[in-house]
Amino acid sequence: MPETAAKAPTLWLPKRTRAMTVRAKASIGLIGPSGSGKSHGARQLAMDPEYAGKVLVAMSEDATSTYGEDILSSGALHIAQIRDAEDAKDLLKEIVEAEKAGKSEFKVIYFDSMSGTGDHEMFRLERNPELWISDEGKKNAYAKFGKFGLIFKELQVLARDYVRADVILTATTTFPKPGVPPELCIDGRMVPENFTRLTNVTLYLDAKQMRIWSAGEEPSKDQVEQIKSLKDQSHIEIGRDENGKVDGSYIVRHVTSKYTGEVAAKGHRSLFLRERADIPMILRKIHGETK
Known about the structure:
Strands 1, 2, 3, 4, 5, 6, 7, 8 and 9 form a nine-stranded mixed sheet that branches. The longest helix has 21 residues, at 141-161. A hairpin with a 5-residue loop joins strand 7 and strand 8 (246-256). The relative contact order is 0.16. With 291 residues, the protein is an alpha/beta fold. The protein has nine helices and nine strands. It has helices at residues 40-46, 63-67, 69-74, 85-100, 114-127, 141-161, 190-194, 221-228, 279-286; strands spanning 27-33, 55-59, 78-81, 108-111, 166-173, 201-211, 236-240, 246-256, 274-276. The termini are far apart. The chain has a single domain, classed as Rossmann fold (3-Layer(aba) Sandwich).
């Protein structure tokens, strides 16, 4: 009789082992100086056919001044008005329950920004000293900042491990100085020290102004064609003068996606060290939908 191959033993798996889905979950920290284009990432999603109408932006400030009436009236972005971190945490819990019930169709939850939410959270603690004053009635700054840090950690864990949609948490950093790494503009030490750790990916955003011709000069035909070629690239913004005329300048935005020793970034296997600051494209790369 022919010999039969020995049957491979079945691999024992602990009860807690679960099958992983092919689609990766993205929990992204998007950090950078004020004005570098963090809010612009939400506009990019709003203008992308795959994401338009399926993005929930949670923010503490006036959305109209940030995104414009054109985007908001179109329904491409939905705004959840939050104030402090406790409010943000409750919003995420509500989203988790809606996802479990099959009610939520949001593909991205976009927090804009954690720095603003942190300001309101510190104000909340100041208004409610019973949350951090000791039993003896003494002020305890250590307890206040501990309370502040713990609620942010819980917020980030909810975003990373429980919400099924992709979550993008933006935060403002100080402007870079020679030899001084940028720091998160969030009070205390606990949040800045743990922000990158509690994300899957942390991207450091920077913007640089470039010029094709000098201000006041008349451009050549080739220069005009050159700046026209930049028009439809979402990580590039064409500069205009006070009369609305193209002035030869443009702003180009990139993200650093890996720790370089200078910025607190955190990489992903699908991202290069430097990527165009195109949030829809970055999400597609993380999900393995594009190279």
